[in-house]
């Protein structure tokens, strides 16, 4: 008997067009659908009255497809399709900014031409009307030049935010023709730099003398500049075309850098603004097919700051690690070979650090133990490159780069092993070796921070180094509580870090809190009762760990032992 007489064929009306069904994609059921329209293909539906293409070929294709599906549905009712089985065995892809932009791009095909015109002009700075009193915020020319030069020679060497040639041209125009000769963007950029230097660094001698002669406090002037710039930049929210201005992106990067250097508690909100604005101004991931790749170096700086927030402070990163992993510095981003080498090594370090953090939160303990050697080897190879390229350098900038790369290396090495503090020691294989490597990493980070303090002061990295050193000291005390015998010189390291911490300017209640943390660490290492300083806050005496967690606001991120 023929199969057609025994099988009851159910002619199900499919909802998707034939092309989407064949590719196993979701169809929007338009006529034609958006996917067929995008690929310039004929859109054919299995609905007699709604077939977009009525050609004989399309009808034949439709009939063959419907018949095949009917037979398959009758003979394989209880059989699970192999495609479904394969999908269930896969893992979700790690979504990032690039993936989201690709999805968004599919919904904006109608605006493709307008977007292309906008992207071609994304590097053009926009002129805006400025308040009349903004020029009064500028110090005398020789002071402004000294402050700007200090930033270009120090901070901008580690975190490229401003283009040196552009800033120097602004200064030359001011010297020759006055402040009225430069554009509004030039005014905003220079004030942004001046305000940051006055707020973060120790001003040059000529600036100190001038401020003293006119009885002006540099910090007060910095506050005035920041408030005025905030008022100007954030008034652009309702101005069409000004929201994504490159100048505003650079201003937000400076604020994000300040938060990285100075902020202890809370999230780096300015960094979130950077990422939000960068999606409107510059390409946020590097593609070889993009003809106009301007400002991609700024996105690299944003990614570096974001990764440092994650590695140094255990804060959730705004930029997904897969995006940062694809973004590599290019030689034409930088003016010299050493700067390019620094950012290449920095990118490898940060990418490895982000991989470690992801592994900690996604792998089991057994799986993580199996990955330890791989992470350790990768870090060792990067350290070898750092030593071969930067050991023995003479200039100030490269010396600081060398010290900072080593500090990041030992911080990531510490992050690699610190998670084992949360595991019961009876369940850990090779416990002594793990705690030995963790202790060595912590001590090395502390020694680099204290031994390179002058370099870190000049390049505004002292607070980062100080906070990381305190974290390492607390971890060392935890290792001792777990039964690991510490080296004899640990007490000396604690006092060195305590002296380093005394150099850093403190805000609010953090000074007394840090003093108690040091007292707690010393009492743990020296095995004698603590003698905390007199304080009004009673909880400082009751719970030392609460002091530390309150200062850093990291209860949900930092690895405390059970």
From TrEMBL:
InterPro entries: Sec_Metabolite_Reg (IPR050613), Zn2-C6_fun-type_DNA-bd_sf (IPR036864), Zn2Cys6_DnaBD (IPR001138). Gene3D superfamilies: Zn(2)-C6 fungal-type DNA-binding domain. GO terms for molecular function: DNA-binding transcription factor activity, RNA polymerase II-specific; zinc ion binding. It is found in: Nucleus. The keyword Nucleus applies. Residues 16-45 form the Zn(2)-C6 fungal-type domain. SUPFAM superfamilies: Zn2/Cys6 DNA-binding domain. Keywords: Nucleus. Pfam families: Zn_clus (PF00172). GO terms for cellular component: nucleus. The keyword Nucleus applies. PANTHER family: TRANSCRIPTION FACTOR PDR3, UNCHARACTERIZED TRANSCRIPTIONAL REGULATORY PROTEIN. This is Transcription factor. It comes from Schizosaccharomyces octosporus (strain yFS286) (Fission yeast).
């Amino acid at each position: 008997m023929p199969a057609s007489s025994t099988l009851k064929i159910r002619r199900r009306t499919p909802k998707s067009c034939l092309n989407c069904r064949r590719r196993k994609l979701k169809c929007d059921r338009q006529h034609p659908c958006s996917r067929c329209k995008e690929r310039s293909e004929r859109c054919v539906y299995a609905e007699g009255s709604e077939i977009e293409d009525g050609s004989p070929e399309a009808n034949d294709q439709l009939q063959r497809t419907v018949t095949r599906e009917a037979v398959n549905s009758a003979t394989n009712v209880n059989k699970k399709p192999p495609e479904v089985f394969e999908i269930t065995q896969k893992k979700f892809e790690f979504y990032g900014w690039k993936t989201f932009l690709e999805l968004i791009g599919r919904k904006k095909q109608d605006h493709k031409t307008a977007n292309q015109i906008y992207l071609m002009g994304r590097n053009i700075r926009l002129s805006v009307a400025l308040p009349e009193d903004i020029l009064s915020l500028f110090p005398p020319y020789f002071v402004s030049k000294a402050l700007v030069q200090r930033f270009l020679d120090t901070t901008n060497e580690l975190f490229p935010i401003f283009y040196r040639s552009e800033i120097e041209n602004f200064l030359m125009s001011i010297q020759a023709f006055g402040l009225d000769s430069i554009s509004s963007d030039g005014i905003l950029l220079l004030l942004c730099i001046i305000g940051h230097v006055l707020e973060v660094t120790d001003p040059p001698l000529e600036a100190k003398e001038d401020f003293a002669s006119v009885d002006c406090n540099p910090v007060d002037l910095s506050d005035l500049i920041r408030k005025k710039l905030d008022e100007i930049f954030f008034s652009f929210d309702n101005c069409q075309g000004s929201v994504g201005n490159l100048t505003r992106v650079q201003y937000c990067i400076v604020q994000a850098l300040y938060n990285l250097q100075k902020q202890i508690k809370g999230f780096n909100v300015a960094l979130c603004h950077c990422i939000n604005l960068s999606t409107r101004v510059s390409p946020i991931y590097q593609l070889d097919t993009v003809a106009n790749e301007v400002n991609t170096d700024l996105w690299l700086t944003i990614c570096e700051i974001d990764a440092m927030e994650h590695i140094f402070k255990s804060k959730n990163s705004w930029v997904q690690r897969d995006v940062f992993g694809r973004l590599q510095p290019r030689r034409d981003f930088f003016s010299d070979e050493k700067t390019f080498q620094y950012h290449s090594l920095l990118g490898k370090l940060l990418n490895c650090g982000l991989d470690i953090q992801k592994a900690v939160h996604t792998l089991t303990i057994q799986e993580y133990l199996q990955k330890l050697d791989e992470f350790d080897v990768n870090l060792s190879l990067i350290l070898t490159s750092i030593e071969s390229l930067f050991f023995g350098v003479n200039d100030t900038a490269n010396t600081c780069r060398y010290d900072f790369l080593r500090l990041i290396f030992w911080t990531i090495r510490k992050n690699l092993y610190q998670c084992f503090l949360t595991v019961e020691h009876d369940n850990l294989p090779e416990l002594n070796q793990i705690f030995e490597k963790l202790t060595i990493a912590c001590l090395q980070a502390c020694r680099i921070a204290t031994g390179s303090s002058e370099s870190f002061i000049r390049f505004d990295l002292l607070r980062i180094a100080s906070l990381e050193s305190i974290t390492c000291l607390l971890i060392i005390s935890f290792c001792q509580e777990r039964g690991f015998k510490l080296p004899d010189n640990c007490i000396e390291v604690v006092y060195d870090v305590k002296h380093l911490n005394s150099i850093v300017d403190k805000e609010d209640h953090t000074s007394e809190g840090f003093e108690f943390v040091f007292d707690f660490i010393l009492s743990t290492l020296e095995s004698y009762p603590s003698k905390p300083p007199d304080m009004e806050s009673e909880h400082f005496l009751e719970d030392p760990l609460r002091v530390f967690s309150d200062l850093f606001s990291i209860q949900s991120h930092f690895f405390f032992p059970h």
